[in-house]
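Forwarding the complex inputs:
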Amino acid sequence: MEKKPLGALTESMFYVLMSFLRRELCGTEVTEFVTEKTNGRLRMGPGTLYTILGKFEEDGLLEEVSIQGRKRTYRLTEHGRRVYQDEVARLRACLADARSEEELE
Amino acid sequence: MSTVRKFIPVDLYDIQGMEGWLEKLATEQGLFLQKFGPIKAHFSTGAPHPVRYRMEPSGPKDTEKSDYYRACGWELIAPLNQHFDIYRSDDPQGEELHTDPVAQSYTLHQLIKTLKRNALMLLLGLGAMGAIIVWVFFFGGQGPVLKLVSSNNITFPLLLAMECLSIGEFLASLRNVLRARKQLREGIALVPNPHYHRTGQVRWVVMTLITIPFLFIAWAPLFLRWESELLAADRPYPILTLAELEEAPDYRLIPFYYPGYEGPDRDNYIQYGWGPMASYYEVSQEGTIPNRTDPEGNGYNPSLDMDWYDLALPALASPLVDDLVDYYTVRNYFPGEYTTQEYSLPGFDRFVIARDDRYGGHARVFAAAGGRVVYLNYYGEADLLERADLVTEVLNWK
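Prediction (whole assembly, two chains):
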C-alpha cells in the first residue's frame, strides 16, 4: 500500500532535513545544529525531535546508518533530499512573491 | 514519604485531562505519580510544587531517546494502559517535550490504527454474540419468553448490554484520541486541562452499578436453587397431588427404579429455581392406585409433571402460555398429534388443554392467572377440565 505523502513541512521538520544535508548525525547533534543555525530562535523539544526522526525514517527521507552504543546515526536519502529541495523551492517562491508585493508599495 | 492511592477520574485516553489532573494533584496537594493500578493511581507525597506531566504514546525502546529525554529534564514515570507513557519534568521553565504540534500528531498515528483495529474486533465480537443470543432465544428450541424465564437465560442479554456499554466506552476513548490528533494537525498544541471531564469516574460508577446486580443475577440462582424427593421435602411448595386429582385416598407413589439404581426418586421429585424473571418449581409424581385398572386391564399408574412459574412481570404470563403450548404440542411434534383447545374459565386468564390424539389417557394443560403460569403433563384417566378447581388452587398457592 502506498504511503500517504507527507504534507507541507513544518519549520522543525524543515530544519531537521537541512541538518542532514552535508553530514550524518545522531539525534542530539540535530538539536545542536538547529539551535546554532537559528541562533536559538527555534526550540525543538526532545519529543518533537525523535518523532520527526522516526517519521522521516518511516517515510524513507532518512535512513539509519549505524548504532554505536546508545547512539543512532542517520543520513539523508535521495528522496529526503528531493523533499528538502522542493520545500526550499516552495519557500523561495513564497519569498519572491512577498518581495514582488513589497516592490509594488 | 507515604503512598496515596486515588481513583482515576479521567478517561485514560484523554491526554489533556490526564495531564491536567496529575499536574493539579502535584501543585495543590503535593501528590506525585508513582504508577497506575487498574482502578487507582499511586502517588508519593511531598511538598506541593508545580511540575509538568506529559502523556506520550508508547513506542519501541530507544535508549538514545530515553537518555535525551532525561537530559532535557523529562523522566519516564509510569506506563499507562499499555498505550501510553507518562513523563514528568520538575522544571516548569524547562524545554517542552513537544514544540511542534503537527509533528506530535504523528505520535498518535500508530495508536489510532491499533484502537481502530481493536474497535473493529470488538464490534465483530458483539455482532457474533448478538447473533448467537438471537438464535438461542428465537430459534433454539424454546420460544423467547419460555427461554427467558427458564433457568437464568436473562444473563445473556444482560451480558450483551454490558458488552455494548464497554464498546461505547471504548469508542468514546477512541474519539478522544482522534480529537487530540485533529487539534494537533491544525497546529494547536495540547494544553493540560485542569478542568478535566470526570468521564472516567462516571464510567466506573456506572460499571459498578451495573456489574454488581449482574453478578448477583448470574450467581444467585446457584445458591437459591434446591431440590428434593417429594417425601423428604422440608419446605413448602405448590403441588396438585395425584391423590386429589384421582380422588383416590389409597394412592401411593412408585419410586423410580431400574436394576442397580440407588439414587434419589426422580419420579417423585421437586426442583426449585430462581431467576430474575421468574421463580419456578418442577414437580414430578408417579404412583399407582390399588384395585384400579386402565382400559386395557393393566394396573393403573398415573403420572403428573408440573412446571409452575411465578413471573416477575405478569405481562409475560400469556406469551409464556403461548410458548409452552408451542413447545409441547407443535415444535417437536407431528401435525395433528394433539388437539388443542382454549377455554374461558372463571379464575383463569388462560386455560388451554392439549389432548393427545394417539393416547387417550394423556393431556397437557397450560393455565395462567395474574403473574402465575402452570403447565401440567398428565397421564391418567381424570378429566383436567372438570378438575380446573384444583388447577386454580395450585396457581393461587402462597
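The first strand of chain A starts at residue 25 and ends at 26.
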